[in-house]
Amino acid sequence: MAQDPDLTVELTTVRGVTRSLDAWTTSFHLAATVLPGRPEAAGYVRIGKRIADVLGGSDCRPAFVIVGNERAARRVMGGALDEYFCFLDPEGAFVKAVGLTKLPAFV
User: Fold this and answer.
1) What are the CA-CA distances from residue 70 to residues 43, 74, 76, 77, 82 (Å)?
2) What is the structure's pLDDT at 41?
3) Can the peptide bond before residue 104 be classed as cis, meaning omega within 30 degrees of 0?
4) pLDDT tens per residue, range 41-52
5) Distance CA 59, CA 96 (A)
6) Distance CA 107, CA 55 (A)
7) How many secondary structure helices (H) and strands (E) does the chain include?
8) What pLDDT, on the 0 to 100 scale, is given for residue 51?
């Protein structure tokens, strides 16, 4: 079951910008589709894109969180990696911080 996360956990975008979860959520809530860094996760990108497109006009910031490095993220997201806000979670710190036990997930 998801829980309130540790706000000091750092998330890094694909472009290399690193901030704490608290900093990323100062202005907007974060609506994240969390995917494992395995190729099979590519099947869920379509669903995450639809969520992001629907929530894009709301008061939250839709994003993807890929559990893995940039190479894994490119394998999963393909060309969508550059179209959508995407975080890398190579050590799974974010996943642990929010208490996720199964992926994919929507947080």
Assistant:
1) 18, 6, 10, 10, 12
2) 96
3) yes
4) 999 999 999 999
5) 26
6) 13
7) 4, 6
8) 92
Which of 82, 74, 79, 93 has its CA nearest to residue 12? 93
Q: Alpha-carbon distance 13 to 3, whole Å? A: 23
Contact 66, 97 (CB under 8 A): no
Q: pLDDT band at residue 59, thresholds of 50, 70 and 90?
A: confident
Q: Find tokens 């100062």 and name the residue.
A: 26
Max distance between CA atoms of the chain, in angstroms, equals 33
Structure confidence by residue, pLDDT tens digits, 68-106: 999 999 999 999 998 999 999 999 999 999 899 999 999
Over residues 4-52, the pLDDT tens digits come to 788 899 999 999 999 999 999 888 888 999 999 999 999 999 999 999 9
Q: What is the dihedral of CA 73, 68, 11, 18, to 10 degrees?
A: -70
Closest CA to 72 of 45, 39, 105: 39
